[in-house]
Amino acid sequence: MKNFYSLITLLTFSILLLTNIQAQTNDYRYQAMLLKQFMQNTDWPPAMIKNEIRVAVLGSNSVVNTLRASIKTIKGKPTKVQKISSLSESEKFHLVFIAANYSTKFYNAQKCCQNKPIVIVTEKEGLGKRGSCFNIIPNPQNPSRLAYEINYASIKQKGLNVSQRIGSMAIRL
Predict the structure, then answer these.
(1) To pair with 93 at 20 to 30 A between CA atoms, which of 10, 74, 134, 169?
(2) CB atoms within 10 A of CB 55
(3) Do 132 and 121 meet the contact criterion of CB atoms below 8 Å apart?
(4) What does the pLDDT read at residue 1?
(5) How far apart are alpha carbons 59 and 57 in whole angstroms?
(6) Sign of the four-CA dihedral 20, 24, 25, 30
(7) For residues 59 and 119, which has the higher predicted lDDT (pLDDT)?
(8) Measured distance between the N- and C-terminal CA atoms of the chain, rounded to whole angstroms
(9) Is 80 helix (H, G, I), strand (E, B) or coil?
C-alpha cells in the first residue's frame, strides 16, 4: 500500500512538472499581451498606418497562432500576424517579433530595419542593449515572471514615439 501511494505521488508530481514545463515553453499569451501594449503605445508616422497593422514573427507556428488569437485590432485597425522566414520581408511590417530560438537573426533584422519605423521586439537577454526596441526577459526580481526592457535610443532612431506609460513599467536601457 505504501508503494502504491509513493507511485501515485510520483506520477502526480511528474504530471505537474511536465505541465509546468509545457506551459513555459508554449504559452505566448503574456508576450502577446505585451506586444499589444507596445503597439497600442507606439506612434508610427501617419503615412505608414493605412488599412492594417502588420506584425511579422520569426518563431514557431504556436507563437503565430497565439498572437493571431490574442491581437485582433490595434488603434481601431485590424491586425495581421504573419510568420516570415526571410528578413527581406520585414520592411512591410510595423513590428517584427523575434522569438528566443530565432535570436541569432536579430542582427540581420537590425540591418534590414535600420532607420525605418519598424519596432523590433526580442526575448533574449542582452538584445535590448544591442538595439532591440523592446526586449522581453525574465524579471530580475522574480525570474518566474517576465519583464521588458525599452531602448529609447533605438526607438528614437527609427523616428517612432512611445507613450511614457509603457516606459514607466519597463527596465530602461
Answers:
(1) 169
(2) 26
(3) yes
(4) 56
(5) 6
(6) positive
(7) 119
(8) 58
(9) strand
List, in order, residues 6 or more apart from 167 with CB less than 8 Å away.
Answer: 150, 152
Range list of H helices, 27-128: 29-40, 61-70, 106-112
pLDDT band at 19 (very low <50, low <70, confident <90, very high): very low
**C-alpha cell belonging to residue 142:** 522574480
Task: Tell me the backbone φ, ψ of residue 71, rounded to 5 degrees.
Answer: -120, 100
Q: What pLDDT shows up at residue 86?
A: 80
Fold of 28-172: Rossmann fold (3.40.50)
Instruction: For residue 75, give every residue at least 6 positions away whose Cβ sits within 8 Å of its Cβ, in sequence order, or none.
Output: 39, 40, 49, 53
- For residue 172, the surrounding DSSP H or E stretch is strand 171-172
The residues with which 57 forms a beta bridge, in sequence order, are 83, 97
Q: Read off φ and ψ for residue 138, nearest 5 degrees.
A: -65, 140
Q: What is the mean pLDDT of the chain?
A: 83
The residue whose grid cell reads 506584425 is 55
Distance, in Å, from the CA atom of 119 to the CA atom of 154, rounded to the nearest integer, reads: 9
For 20-75, write each residue's pLDDT tens digit.
333 344 478 888 999 999 999 999 998 888 889 999 999 888 889 999 999 999 99
pTM given for the model: 0.82
Residue 46 and residue 31: Cα distance in Å, rounded?
A: 26
